[in-house]
Amino acid sequence: MPALSPSTVTPTAAAIEHSRLLSKQHSDGGWGLVPIQSRAGRFSSFDVADFEPVSGFETEWKYTPIKRLAALLDGVLGGGRYDYSVDKDDDISVDWVGRSDARIGSVGTPEERGSANAWTAFEDALVVTVSGEEPVEATIIRSAVGVEPRAAHLVIDARPNSRGVVILQSTGTAQLSENLEISVGDGARLTVVSVQEWADDGIHLATHFAKLGKDAHLRHVVVSLSGSIVRVNTNAHLAGEGSDVELYGVYFADAGQHLEHQVFVNHDAPHTKSRVSYRGALQGEDARTVWIGDVLIRPTANGTDSYEENRNLLLTDGTRADSVPNLEIETGDIAGAGHASASGRFDDEQLFYLEARGIPEDEARRLVVRGFLSGIVQKIGVPAVQEQLDAAIEAELRA
Fold it and tell me: CA nearest 293: which of 314, 268, 259, 323?
């Protein structure tokens, strides 16, 4: 599939031309090259040809096992439609559209090679449109993506003042690289839940772009429970005054799994608010998780209120959790900004308390882990999804 060009998508022509006029991406590992210090200065382009091959020294890839992702980073990806099932209310629509649709490219631009390769390769995009002021809900299930490397593109368009919940559930075997654009119109309130329960050999690269209008609210939840490699990057652009975003994540890594989540919150308008909270548990030899949280408060974002945290619970030996919070503030007029990160083992006092009341050690450990993760699960606000995730977490613990 040819790369996206200005003649293909008119609304993003200026952005595409700007990307092409910039110099190509460079690696942090080259001699004499100074790595970009600000998150705002990261290179972006719709065309995979504008990105250098991934070496593993790049800031955005240095924690990722790139050798296992060669097919998605450098290979030719299938970009056709895939099978899915949907359960939705009448006032929410789900349709395939071509690349020339004006909504495609209106929210974000790829900042790394994997996302750009998927953007270059996809042929049609699946668009979910949320409209009307009465709450609506849709659940999209993908269980037959296939074993061949492929690209996908999904758009969620929440019209001004709409109310909606969109749940994306992914299961089965896959080698999938995709982009998800989330447009939240002025005054809209949207919840997006992305659940990754791939087969043990599943490989999934995803970039979620979100753009919020004036007084818009987005609750975005990422749940990663299985798969060989799962890497979900979430970029939230608070472009409208008074916009508010909640970014939550919960993950459970077993032996040999790599679960990675990168978050970028871009405060670009006055009086915006963000809350980021990700929690994970790890068990088994070579279970690996990565969380990177970037928050940028621009000079235009006076009155910003921002906080991010990541907490990890290491259940066995042989696990590793990397947690990297970053905060950039370019204005002195803010309501508050902060971050926190912690990774550790069981609290012996909690276990002693439970065992002293006659609860066996194994059951006590399960209760502690479920309590630790349920703090995020309960924020989803969709009872059916919360019950499903509670059951899935319980199954992971008993296994």
Answer: 323
